[in-house]
Amino acid sequence: MIKNTVMLGVFASTIVSSLNAKAIEDKILKDQFVISGSLSFLTEYYWRGATQTQGKPAVQGILRMDHDTGVYAQIFASNIQLGIGSSLEFDYFLGYNYSLNDHLKLNLQYLDVNYPGKDKTLPQVDFEEYSLGLAASDLLRSDDQLDFSFYYSPDYTLETGKMLRYEAGYRFPINAKWGTYTQIGYNKFSSLDAYARLWDTDKKKYFYDYKVGVDLSFQNFIFDLYYADANINKALSNADSTVVFSLSRIF
Predict the structure, then answer these.
(1) How many domains does the chain have?
(2) Which of 124, 217, 227, 233 has the greatest count of CB atoms below 10 A from its CB?
(3) 12, part of any domain
(4) Residue pLDDT, tens place only, 163-208
(5) Sequence-ordered list of residues with C-beta below 8 angstroms from that of 152, at least 6 positions apart, any chain
(6) How many CA within 13 A on the CB side of residue 57?
(7) Which Pfam family is an annotated match for this chain, by its short name (predicted)?
(8) Domain encompassing residue 77
(9) Is pLDDT larger for residue 20 or for residue 188?
């Protein structure tokens, strides 16, 4: 009886130790990885100076996983209307955030833009992009942020060659819920012919775009309203100035 009791105690102790080890392991994994995402409804999908939905509404989803080393992976999906045979944009992100100090953060990112079901008679519309960003916070007040980013595509959409984008943005928190922001970008393409293929004019090979907006965070929702414009080619309806409103649910 004593022998059986001792053996049972050893067995129970082993099980408890295993469960504790599993719980510790699960906690470590939970602490190391953070999964987040959002679902957004927008009056229009507008990106870098042009509408992606011809001024019509869009539904977008983001799923992201961050590791405590700063490495992250993200997927993005949205409906589109670009006349390329596809009604969906599906992007993959892989990046790394590195804190230089309490107020400076460096970001390295790879982006793979895909259009499932695209018209294969067109030049390749999918493209890859690499970026480097620097974010500085707490400059004028707590939680404000100034961003500088550089983007490079070795072969931009429709096989138009190299594309460079320089971007600067600033967000100023009015209070714990409200904030205002602005962003400006300069986009340079490989040649006049490349610009003409993309924007139907061979008069230049660069353009700038900008936006000014305000956002409101309430519990797990974000309300965003901004005005945007660009000098791409004013003869194009998809490059008109616009006002975009979005509602996002964060999880």
Answers:
(1) 1
(2) 233
(3) no
(4) 999 999 999 999 999 999 999 999 999 999 999 999 999 999 999 9
(5) 129, 130, 131, 162, 163, 164, 165
(6) 8
(7) Gcw_chp
(8) 35-250
(9) 188
Name the band, by pLDDT with cuts 50, 70 and 90, for residue 2: very low
Q: What is the pLDDT of residues 99-144, one digit of tens each?
A: 999 999 999 999 999 999 999 999 999 999 999 999 999 999 999 9
What are the helix and strand counts (H, E) for the chain? 2, 14
Tokens 């230049």 — which residue? 204
CA–CA gap between residue 98 and residue 171 (Å, rounded):
20
**Distance from C-alpha of 110 to C-alpha of 128, rounded to nearest angstrom:** 7
> What was the pLDDT predicted at 30?
57
The predicted-structure confidence for 57-107, as pLDDT tens digits, reads as follows 999 999 999 999 999 999 999 999 999 999 999 999 999 999 999 999 999
Element holding 69 (H helix, E strand)? none
Under 8 Å between Cβ of 88 and 79: yes
Q: Is residue 29 part of a domain?
A: no
Here the CATH number for the domain that contains residue 130 is 2.40.160.40
Of 129, 217, 135, the C-alpha closest to 176 is: 217
For residue 227 the two structure tokens come to: 């005005």
Strands 88-99 and 104-114: antiparallel
